[in-house]
Design goal:
This protein is of the alpha/beta class and about 375 residues long. It has 13 helices and 17 strands. The two termini are about 25 Å apart.
């Protein structure tokens, strides 16, 4: 069932004299006070510029990391590099923030400190949401990657201000909705780990897509379920040995793997892994199999790397990115490491859509909605 339409910032008229609270996607890697990857922030620039052109004052808020330690100060500096006037305030709410807001002129941006410095953010606390809402007249969610979280700046605040979605949120919604009804021949490729959270999506998409390829640490769970030795490989706590997914005719897994152990690194079939070895990546024959499927597919959806990216096993993920860049079909990709592989190759323009989301992308693909979307639909009553 299609979602009811959400209000968009393009529905807003002149905003002179208005303050807009923008929940941005600011969760980016920062080293030495410098943003290392601008992807999420730059995708939010269109929303900020639209609101500025409408005359609004903007309060920009978001989180970095899970513990709130990182500061959002580098975000303000990055916005300045993109020609915007932005000021950082070292608090999330309170008198210091209100004073800074009083001095904020139209078409300027006030960047709040990391929302997760206040524990009430993760608690979806109404009092915290009220403090945030008091700063503005209108709420805009442009943080699709965080919209699977039931947090105060995502959900509770929508009960207090009229809510809209920004350009990036709308773009994500449009592209991912289309991939829930792919054109055939279709291919869904899923890597990474944590099968316990991804199994419902796999079960659902085996009925929707023509082929579903499971790679990365997820494949280790399937190998183990089939009775193969997986050595010291990363596996989930979930047991899928009795799941009918294992016998599904559309399910594809690596036909060879790269392992490393006491005797060094080698390529082998999944059923010939030694007890002292660890599976790190898919092998070359697996890539050959995927190449044929990719070249013939009309719709390709990909989330999650096929190797242990952090350990340097990126070869097959990078090779897959090159194959997708060369195909003529629709290509939609999400997940931090997956998109990073494409950026490493400078192939961003060769893809139909690169999602800023990882977990939120998978949640939306499975459910067709997110907590943020449901909250925004309720915001219609504000």
């Amino acid at each position: 069932m299609p979602l009811p339409p959400l209000k968009k910032i393009t529905d807003l008229g002149d905003l002179t004299g208005k303050t807009v609270f923008v929940r941005g996607s600011l969760n980016v890697p920062i080293v030495g006070g410098v943003v290392q990857n601008q992807f999420r922030v730059t995708r939010g620039l269109a929303t900020l510029n639209t609101l500025i052109n409408k005359g609004a004052r903007i309060v920009l808020a978001g989180h970095i990391g899970s513990d709130g330690v990182e500061s959002t100060a580098p975000i303000a500096e990055l916005l300045k590099q993109h020609g915007l006037t932005a000021y950082h305030v070292a608090e999330v709410t309170g008198a210091v923030v209100k004073n800074a807001l009083e001095n904020l002129k139209p078409k300027k941006i006030l960047v709040l400190e990391n929302l997760r410095r206040d524990p009430r953010e993760k608690q979806n606390d109404d009092s915290f949401a009220r403090e945030l809402a008091e700063l503005a007249d209108i709420y805009v969610n442009d943080a699709f990657p965080a919209s699977h979280r039931v947090h105060a700046s995502i959900c509770a605040i929508t009960k207090l201000l009229p809510g809209y979605i920004g350009h990036n949120f709308n773009h994500e919604l449009t592209e991912l909705t289309a991939m829930r009804s792919p054109k055939s021949p279709s291919l869904f490729m899923l890597g990474g780990a944590k099968f316990d959270t991804k199994m419902p999506l796999v079960e659902q998409f085996l009925e929707i897509y023509d082929h579903v390829f499971i790679g990365g640490a997820l494949a280790n769970d399937l190998f183990k379920a089939r009775g193969y030795e997986v050595g010291t490989s990363l596996v989930s706590a979930i047991d899928v040995s009795n799941n009918p997914v294992l016998q599904h005719p559309k399910l594809l897994m690596p036909v060879d793997v790269i392992v490393s152990g006491a005797s060094g690194q080698r390529v082998t079939t999944p059923d010939q892994v030694h007890p002292d070895e660890k599976i790190f990546d898919a092998g070359p024959k697996t890539l050959e199999m995927l190449a044929g499927l990719i070249s013939g597919a009309s719709s390709i959806l990909w989330n999650g790397p096929f190797g242990n990216y952090e350990a340097g096993f990126s070869e097959q993920t990078l090779a897959t990115a090159r194959l997708l860049a060369a195909t003529k079909g629709t290509t939609v990709v999400g997940g931090g490491d997956t998109v990073a592989s494409i950026e490493e190759l400078l192939l961003q323009e060769k893809f139909t859509f690169l999602s800023t989301a990882g977990g939120a992308m998978l949640t939306f693909l499975e459910l067709g909605t997110l907590p943020a979307i449901e909250a925004l639909l309720q915001s219609e009553k504000v």
